[in-house]
Amino acid sequence: MPVSISVVNQKGGVGKTTTAVNLAACLAAAGHPTLLVDADPQGNATSGVGVIPQDLEFTIYDALLEQAALEETILPTFITGLSLIPANIDLSGIEIALMDRPDRLERMKKLLAAINDRFEFILIDSPPSLSLLALNVLAAAERVIVPVQCEYYALEGLTTLLQTFERVRETVNPNLDILGILMTMYDKRTNLAQQVVAEVERVFPKQVFTTVIPRSVKLSEAPSFGKPIIYYDFNSKGSEAYIGLCQEVLERVKETRAGQGAGRPVERFDESPLGERSPRDGAAGDAERLAAGDPAGGDPGQP
Ligand SMILES: Nc1ncnc2c1ncn2[C@@H]1O[C@H](COP(=O)(O)OP(=O)(O)O)[C@@H](O)[C@H]1O
Ligand SMILES: [Mg+2]
After folding, report:
1. How many domains does the chain have?
2. 106 lies in some domain
């Protein structure tokens, strides 16, 4: 079974999509075949990996409603080892479409359960709400990463979020586990950012990732080029941070899977995330695929 990780926080603008896209790209570049699932009608994870959300034949909406076969909704991306189930504005109609279905809370869970071992990781980007759609994501995932912005109201809303996790655990998904809390948009020039990190670490000593994501212009520019940061500016601080997060995620997954005696070999996780192959090599290979007319590999162009 692939490891499924959802990126969840009901607050908007905290770095969920940025984290889902960049972590997925780093995992894929590290040699772990990964499926990125866009579960937000805004479709930002979709465009973040270079797929244009408009005019898609099938999206996650069709998959959730069983209007398309799962395979038909999985697209390749320009990144070797990274596939995508895209989303667009159609997804905003999902709540109404699912209203009368008794299994409406578990549509995503059933969908992901059908995804086989050709992926090692499934990364799910979620909407900024605790709507039916967000609950579907929590019902489906084994692990959650909670991005928290380094700002004054950082802890606000976290209690509600944790209560929601608890309710999901008691009902549809007893296996739900927090993989980690990720501090995002850290500005080292301000005392506030340092205080916020210290405070969140005090409240959640075990959960906070050692890696902190800095506030970085490059990270905010990359999506408009349809590229994860390691393909946009490999030598940037943001790139370094998401590679660090990838390493930590691999370690945490390895620890817990080993603890459970899970059947999957863990040796693969001992490889350094980017292995011998730098993403640049990947980009060269991608150029060849593009030349060969890879359908999802089109350059989204400049903004
Ligand atoms: N570390 C960062 N540094 C600078 N800008 C960032 C960073 N992380 C995210 N952003 C930008 O902040 C905005 C919100 O981030 P996003 O990942 O879309 O949040 P969410 O998905 O939680 O709404 C986006 O414009 C994104 O490009
Ligand atoms: Mg988002």
Report:
1. 1
2. yes
Q: Is residue 71 part of a domain?
A: yes
Cα 88 to ligand 2 centre (Å): 12
Q: What is the pLDDT of residues 59-103, one digit of tens each?
A: 999 999 999 999 999 999 999 999 999 999 999 999 999 999 999
> Which CATH number characterizes residue 203's domain?
3.40.50.300
Res 260: pLDDT: 55
The number of the ligand nearest the C-alpha atom of 211 reads 1
* DSSP code of residue 208: B
Residue 299 lies in a domain: no
Domain span holding position 219: 3-280
Judge whether 293 lies within some domain: no
Residue 21 alpha carbon, nearest atom of ligand 1: 17
More confident residue, 185 or 285: 185
216 CB less than 6 Å from ligand 1? Answer: yes
Ligand nearest to the CA of 14: 1
